[in-house]
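Homework-ish question, so no full write-ups if that breaks the rules, but can someone show me the predicted structure for this set?
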Amino acid sequence: MGNFSALGGAEFDAAIIGGGIIGCGVARDLALRGLSVALIEKGDFGGATTAGSTRLIHGGLRYLEMLDFALVRMDLREREILLRNAPHLVKPLEFRIPFVGHSWFFQQKMRAGLCLYDLLSYDKSVPNHRFVSAAETMRDEPSLAREGCTGSASYYDAQVCLPERLALENVIDAERHGAIVRNYAEVVGVARSSGRIRALRARDVDSGEEAEVRAKVFVNATGPWFDRVSERMGAVQSRRIRTTKGIHLACAPMIQKANVLFSPVDGRLFFAIPLLGTTWISTTDTDFRDDPGGVRAGDGDIEYLLRSVEPFFPDVRRLALYSTSAGVRALVKRDGSESSVSRLHKVEQTEPGVVSILGGKITGYRAIAEDASDAVCKVLGVSANCSTAVLPLPGTGNAETLYGSRWSGVKALMEEYGSIGAEAVFAAREEYCSHLDDYMFRRAAHAFSPDFGASVAAEALRGLSRELGWDEARRAAEWGRVAAAAEKASVKSYPGIVPSL
Ligand SMILES: Cc1cc2nc3c(=O)[nH]c(=O)nc-3n(C[C@H](O)[C@H](O)[C@H](O)COP(=O)(O)OP(=O)(O)OC[C@H]3O[C@@H](n4cnc5c(N)ncnc54)[C@H](O)[C@@H]3O)c2cc1C
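A: Not a homework solution, just the prediction itself:
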């Protein structure tokens, strides 16, 4: 934590632009290797694509169909590492593929795919796939359409309910190992000498203060902003990524299992999953060329998902829609339909002293960070091994809460601040939280509640105001940020009046 000017001190070995899951993973990996590291994120850690994801830790059955075996194997290996190293955040999840009016051929194809999935995850701790009778399928999932249901296939993957906290724990560990980390710090330009980048110009988004961040190597880990940031860094190159939008619907709870479904609209695979007390419907995949910061679910996206779910869960339109979320995938640029483009990442030195990360998934973030960190060490001529595959994240030790073993820190504050106030104050002291929405939506999961957290926001605001010394104007501004986020997520009913303290 500490002040912004710490970025402007001595030259770092590496300066990382972008604090999504991948940039946070690189910061941790390099710090653990003993390098001096700066991590610069223009919004909140994990607040962009990482927060806009489906929140699965999975090899991805769909990628088997695309014959992307290398991607699937890497992600199944990483799934196992995450189940071991972050059990408070990443949990096994049983999926069902219901057969509703599907042909014999379709069922055989699923059988072959699941056998291969089991083979590629030979080192897994979760059960193998199995086939489930129609009676058991209907018993386990009562709201599934009965007509034409001949049973289902069951297999396991994993879920990370709050990937924002997975990113955060990487940042916490990076800082513990000496990294200087800053959220709300935007890279706005670079300083060059002899044609080579020597420093980044970073601006504190809240105060406008600027710092020159000198480093030997720079890492572009800005996900869907990659081409925009490359341009800002003065790189002369054609577009390297293809950006596609995906949205989610968080509806009232209806389903019991994670369901893999195939859209009758266009045949695409999509999900209806239980997540944090909601039915979470995911996702679309359409080209999106605007600034990723402005992405949101449109009426057409919502209608597509509802039309896709309806034949399987006929009551879906009667469910209350709590909120929507959206994200922009960054895929290594290739032609073809959006869904056919590989999710496999690429790490390359795009100019001397600049390591670029293109594409990737949350599931493989640690391996991607390892590749990028190896590339940084190569440029620096340093020999240091990666240890993130075996070192647990800071909260490991108590899988009961999303805070893991760090929960004791929250508990110690409860008597003084109440339970929500304690979490908010802990977030401000220990978790780089400087805005009300940081706590509401990324340190905690209030965005998933039916009222988008309105019932607890006053207590959180009270705790943060006390801790951070906010006056009335600042409290109103903070309330406004949360209301704007609720509006963007299509929840119109957020209270307009700032609660008095
Ligand atoms: C709809 C959807 C569903 C998905 N579902 C899954 C899933 O279920 N499982 C899975 O494994 N993967 C999933 N993914 C993929 C996954 O979300 C991404 O691969 C991952 O989050 C990318 O992380 P990142 O760090 O590269 O990008 P981001 O999380 O976007 O981080 C990049 C960061 O760079 C910052 N930045 C940009 N410009 C600057 C600047 N000038 N200065 C400083 N910082 C800057 C941004 O603010 C941002 O926080 C999904 C993606 C989408 C869109």
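Now go work out the reasoning yourself. Hint: The CA atoms of residues 126 and 156 lie 6 Å apart.
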